[in-house]
Structure formats: C-alpha cells, structure tokens
Amino acid sequence: MANTLVLYYSATQTTARLARVIAEELAADLALIHPVQPYTEADLDWHNPQSRTSLEQHAHNQRVAVTVDWPNPAEYANIILGHPIWWGIPPRLISAVIDQVDLNGKYFASFATSGGSGYSRCQTNLQRAIEANGYHLAALNPGRVLSSPTQARAWARGLELAR
Q: CA 154: distance to chain centroid?
C-alpha cells in the first residue's frame, strides 16, 4: 500500500493528466472525486452567469455533494488534493471533500490547473476549510498551479511528505 493518496477532481481531464503524473512520481494511490450530480457541459459554461458552476462559485460557503468512494484516508500519511480553478478558487466540491477527509496529523499538499489564475486565493480558501474543520496538519505544503508533466514531477519531488 502506498503512503500517499492523490485525490483529485477533473472536469475536462486536464487535472487528471497531472494527477496521474504526480501519483506515478510518488508511487501514490490515485482516486477521482465524483460529484453526486455530475457536471454537464452546460453546467461548466463560465460565460453563462446562470450556469450551475457560476451560481455555485459565487455562493460563499457553498458545498457540492460528493460521492465518498475513495480509499480510506486514515490509511495514508500524505494527502494530495488536485483540482481545477474556477473563478479564482477551487470548485465548491473541494471544500466538501475537506469536510469529509480527516486531515488530522496528515502531510497535506494541493495543486491546481488553470487557464490563467494563480494559486494564492486557492491556498487561502483551502486553509480556511482546514481551519473550519479544526484539523491539525503535520505539514501544509504550499499549493501551486501546474501546467506540464515536467512541472508536476518537480513540484511533487519538492513536497514535505512523511516517508
């Protein structure tokens, strides 16, 4: 069994591609996050202010239900969470994941894919979710926007993780 779980959400397979690279680099287990109600192409239309994602992302403290079908996080010392960036922050389902994955004592890292956003708002958003749950991490690695397999491998090698 691997010591690291790479848990990710990917609407368009961009994040999935880099999650696989990171999992391979770290000899980690890999698990996809599934929203209970899958997103349609119309839901993902960020040009439409009435699309599902537009409405979700603008509702503070919104949670999007996820299907808990990933491996038991208690079996891992390291949790890496991957996601796209929507409206400058992680999709609202990522906060729901943090609510459901006990991160106490874990080494935690997160990464994102994006067409143009930086990671600072995402890092703040995730830290707030971690604090709201009262988790005490062993380490919180700085998150990063990744755009290539080479970049993903280098980022993964630089993480502070339990060995």
A: 18
